[in-house]
Amino acid sequence: MTAPLDVPGSATEADPEAVLAGADRKAIQGRSLGQIAWMRLKRDKVALAGAGVIIFLVLVALFAPLIVKFLGHPPLEFHREKIDQSTLTPTGAFGGMSWDYLFGVEPLWGRDIFSRIVYGARISLLIAFLATLLSVVIGTVLGVVAGYFGGWVDTVISRAMDVFLAFPLLVFAIALAGVVPDQAFGMSGDTLRVSLLVFIIGFFSWPYIGRIVRGQTLSLREREFIDAARSLGARGPYIIFRELLPNLIAPILIYATLVIPTNILFEAALSFLGVGVRPPTPTWGGMLAEAARFYTVPHFAIFPGLAIFVTVLAFNLFGDGLRDALDPRGR
Question: Which parts of the sequence belong to the ABC transmembrane type-1 domain (predicted)?
Fold first, then answer.
């Protein structure tokens, strides 16, 4: 058996002064949960692509008048000279596509499809965002209250959730939107229709986020930091707004990004059924409803359908990536 080699201390031990000097040059910094989530999200190229498409669509909706001014024609302007009066279909190849009419023109009226797609993004995104905001606010407030206080408060709110979840939303939306007159509640025209759709979609969708928030609140209220806040004399409102809500931001954001495409589809369905925003205001669902009468002109239905598909897909991809980034169990 050979004796172990004697290794000098300088070969195995680091010089304390050198360690301190290195620490001074490069300080060790901790990372917040937001920084960790952003690092995860940056590695998800699919989610970033979805976010890029969403930003692009929002910019298109905001600057629709400027885009149409340079690349199209007013969305309500008729171009009968582009229509074959015998067949009522666009003249020229591919539905009248050209540099002046990028997506061609509509049958019968000759309106610019590109301009109507661009302006239709305004209606779809506006209704989807506002309806999501309404449902998230109502669902978060009632979900936190039910989960934190429990008892009869939780019972009443939970039974209300069950009632709303069992409600035939589509049938009610068709009935309510169909009977409301053109002037009501001090509003008229597109303002009334948009407000009505936001109320129908947002108010009757809050139980979904409400159940998620209630379940998370039931788990959080038993945690040590809540007990510590109670022991220090904190009251209910302080605990809800300063302790619970900051820890509920992640599931709320995830739900919001995933419910927006659902609201876009619901608005398109109502417009397709004729109870959404009234013509001639351009909407993607309304364009699909008009295209159903001209099945021999496929481009009339392809472009609004493609706009809905791309928008919904982008929100779903970004929502999935955001969920993975905010998951504390993820690597």
Answer: 121-319
